[in-house]
Design brief:
With 466 residues, the chain is α+β, with helices and mostly antiparallel strands. It folds into two domains: 237 residues, 2-Layer Sandwich (Cytochrome Bc1 Complex, Chain A, domain 1), CATH 3.30.830; 190 residues, Metalloenzyme, LuxS/M16 peptidase-like (Cytochrome Bc1 Complex, Chain A, domain 1), CATH 3.30.830.10. It contains 16 helices and twelve strands. The strands form two sheets. A six-stranded mixed β-sheet has the order 1-10-11-9-12-8, with helices on both faces. A hairpin with a 5-residue loop joins strand 2 and strand 3. Helix 1 crosses helix 4, helix 1 packs across helix 7 and helix 2 packs antiparallel against helix 3. The longest helix is centred in the middle third of the chain and has 20 residues. It is globular and about 60 Å long. 48% of the residues are buried.
């Protein structure tokens, strides 16, 4: 008998809840507001920022941790690709490990591993991140190693050697229901432009991406200091800045604006049903970003919860009113993604096949109540506590703090420090959250379903219910 298993939704940056198959009886959650007195430590976060003559931004922050963190953020994600360049940023992510004028690939990796305890190269829709965790004395050395990695060689055989790795990652993404959901969601919401570009190089294009195409993208975007944000955690600002490379200044490369459009899309798969009802969110610059974080804590927490016992999110709306109200629902979550000029916010559910119509009914009912009734004062306090704890957890180590600061500095004109963000959370009222909820839920809907799509209504029908 087909017995689908719940699967992770971490790739979607989701916050939510989950029940697992088990023998325990259903637990009726308490609706008493959580009022934990936990206050995340947000000081001392003495953030300093400056801009080099070549356009590169520098952000540093003091830290009491024994280790240090260095990160380089580059505005060179798929949203910056032209139609002819689709998939090139996927290759660019891997070029940092390749041969340079002074080092072979094995020495690139060896030198970074010998100087750091952690080193990673990651890609988002907006850019590439190269980050490391290390001892204080190694900071200038790692800065130099990262700088050298910004000048790889683009011989055809070097780019060609990346093809098997790119193919494997692309094929894995195209077979994973969670990744498919995320990709279809962004493609539909932004009509395949800007943030709607695929995060992975399409399998059909992997073999046709030339070394010259990768080189052109790299020179214009990755090797351009106007697109760089350097972050140091636990370092002196002036010393960190003095050790940075003085790459030649270039004209700022133009970026494609991402306008939220909305619509609906469905992909038939032999898997659990994954459905999302999503709206226009807010950007990293938006004054309502803290309010949307609290709204996300109201609808669904920041983790998935077991059916075998109560978890941290049993008072959230999606847990109480969706997950606990239908045996076929395996997971519920809130999606909240903010980018430099756009954002997405919505609700998500994973269910056993044959339940899509009922799941959409439950989700739209919850959204309709949220839009009409708003948020109560008692509900607000528990949500603010959960939002602050989730935020503090995201800054637990120097590398995580570096990622937060770099992402904010790269995406927004004004850097909102962790202390300032928590302060804004504390000042929010129930009226603020209700206003933001009504505004978001009044935008055009994006309806996406992956898996068993039989019985899925249209986006227009869903919009009318809310």
């Amino acid at each position: 008998m087909f017995a689908p298993k719940p699967s992770s939704v971490a790739r979607l940056s989701l916050a939510g809840s989950q029940r697992l198959f088990g023998t325990a009886a259903k637990v009726a959650p308490s609706v008493v507001t959580q009022t934990a007195e936990y206050v995340p430590r947000t000081t001392p976060f003495e953030v300093q920022t400056s801009t080099l003559e070549n356009g590169a931004r520098v952000v540093t922050v003091q830290s009491e941790a024994l280790s240090r963190a260095v990160a380089l953020f580059v505005k060179a994600g798929p949203r910056h690709e032209s139609r002819e360049q689709i998939g090139v940023s996927h290759f660019a992510k891997h070029m940092v490990f390749q041969r340079t004028k002074t080092r072979s690939p094995i020495f690139v990796v060896r030198d970074m591993e010998s100087m750091t305890s952690e080193f990673s190269s990651t890609a988002t829709r907006e850019g590439l991140t190269f980050s490391a965790r290390l001892e204080p004395n190694n900071v200038p050395i790692v800065q130099a190693l990262l700088t050298d990695s910004l000048s790889p060689l683009f011989h055809e055989y070097i780019v060609g050697d990346l093809v098997p790795t790119i193919e494997l990652e692309s094929q894995s993404a195209e077979e994973d229901p969670n990744t498919i959901f995320s990709e279809v969601l962004h493609k539909t919401a932004f009509r395949n432009v800007g943030l709607g570009r695929p995060l992975y190089c399409p399998s059909s294009r992997v073999g046709s991406v030339s070394a010259s195409t990768v080189s052109d993208f790299w020179v214009a975007r990755v090797h351009n200091p106007n697109n760089h944000t350097w972050v140091g955690v636990g370092v002196d600002h002036e010393e960190f800045k003095a050790s940075l490379p003085r790459l030649e200044s270039k004209s700022a490369a133009q970026s494609t604006a991402s306008a939220y459009v909305g619509g609906d899309a469905s992909i038939l798969l032999d898997s659990n049903t994954r459905v999302g009802i999503v709206f226009k969110g807010v950007s990293e610059n938006d004054k309502d970003l803290p309010a949307l974080a609290v709204l996300s804590a109201v609808t669904g927490g920041d983790a998935r919860y077991s059916h075998d016992g109560p978890g941290r999110g049993v008072t959230t709306r999606l847990y109480r009113n969706v997950l606990q109200n239908h045996e076929g629902v395996l997971a519920t979550a809130t999606l909240n993604a903010s980018y430099s000029d756009a954002g997405l916010w919505g609700v998500y559910a994973e269910a056993q096949p044959g339940n899509v119509s009922k799941v959409v009914e439950l989700l739209t009912g919850e959204l309709s109540r949220l839009k009409k009734e708003g948020v109560s004062a008692s509900e607000l306090e528990g949500a603010k506590n959960r939002a602050k704890v989730a935020f503090a957890k995201s800054l637990d180590c120097p590398k995580a703090l570096a990622n937060y600061l770099g992402r904010k500095a790269s995406a927004s004109g004004t850097l909102l420090t962790p202390s300032e963000f928590v302060s804004k959370l504390d000042k929010l009222t129930a009226e603020d959250i209700s206003r933001v909820a009504k505004g978001v839920l009044s935008t055009d809907v994006t309806l996406v379903c992956v898996g068993d799509v039989d019985g899925l209504p249209t986006a227009k029908d869903v919009q009318s219910r809310i």
